[in-house]
């Protein structure tokens, strides 16, 4: 099972996808874990997810981990499919629970109540592609799976 999760081709497109997704997700994860970039840190994010949004505590922790450790895993290409699955789940949840009601477009001009889901859909597309392709070139996954 682990070999199947790690196996990947020497694919430069997968490298580009995982770096793009990981580098975009990491600042969001750092907001949630350490309060960087104007975030509220782990405790504040956990409290918001559980008390305000009504998420179960375990799910709140998984969201925080998916955006932080999952993003680091994507950047390194370590457990790429697992990290991509976590990001895909977070993006799907964000679309359904928050952004769907605001429509498709991001709030470029401040004329709508919140952000639409176009960004989330792009991240979801990259995550699904990475679940299919794996980490690709220069990934830890490829290094581990090629040792056998």
UniProtKB/TrEMBL annotation:
Protein name per Swiss-Prot or TrEMBL: Putative oxidoreductase
Cited PANTHER family: INNER MEMBRANE PROTEIN YPHA-RELATED, OXIDOREDUCTASE CATD-RELATED
Keyword annotations of the record: Cell membrane, Membrane, Transmembrane, Transmembrane helix
Keyword Cell membrane tagged: yes
An example Gene Ontology CC term for this record: plasma membrane
Keyword Cell membrane part of the UniProt annotation: yes
Superkingdom of source: Bacteria
UniProt-annotated location(s): Cell membrane
């Amino acid at each position: 099972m682990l070999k199947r999760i790690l196996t990947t081709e020497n694919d430069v497109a997968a490298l580009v996808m995982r770096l793009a997704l990981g580098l975009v997700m990491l600042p969001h994860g750092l907001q949630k874990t350490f309060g960087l970039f104007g975030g509220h840190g782990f405790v504040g994010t956990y409290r918001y997810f559980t008390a305000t949004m009504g998420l179960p505590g375990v799910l709140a922790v998984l969201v925080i981990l998916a955006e932080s450790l999952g993003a680091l895993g994507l950047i390194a290409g370590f457990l790429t499919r697992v990290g991509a699955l976590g990001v895909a789940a977070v993006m799907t949840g964000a679309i359904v629970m928050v952004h769907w009601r605001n429509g498709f477009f991001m709030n470029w001009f401040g004329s709508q109540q919140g952000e639409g889901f176009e960004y989330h859909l792009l991240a979801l597309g990259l995550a699904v592609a990475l679940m299919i392709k794996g980490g690709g070139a220069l990934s830890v996954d490829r290094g581990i799976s090629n040792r056998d």
